[in-house]
Predict the 3D structure of the following.
Amino acid sequence: MTETTVSRPLAQPSRHLQALVVWTAVLPTLTVLNLVLGSVLRTLPPYAQPPIMATLTVPIVVYVLMPRLMRLLGRLARVR
């Protein structure tokens, strides 16, 4: 017979920790995008600026930063 291993589901971090991780990803992303694109965005009408920033920020945060931060958080949790 082969041995089967039962893996435990990973515990989800608290809502407060999740909020902190999201903030940690969003704030630097918005800051960098604003520094890089600020002069270009200022030439656009004010109602066009937030959708452009959101369109750029959300994919960066969701697909690049959050997976990396959650992996880091998982490693830190295992160390403890």
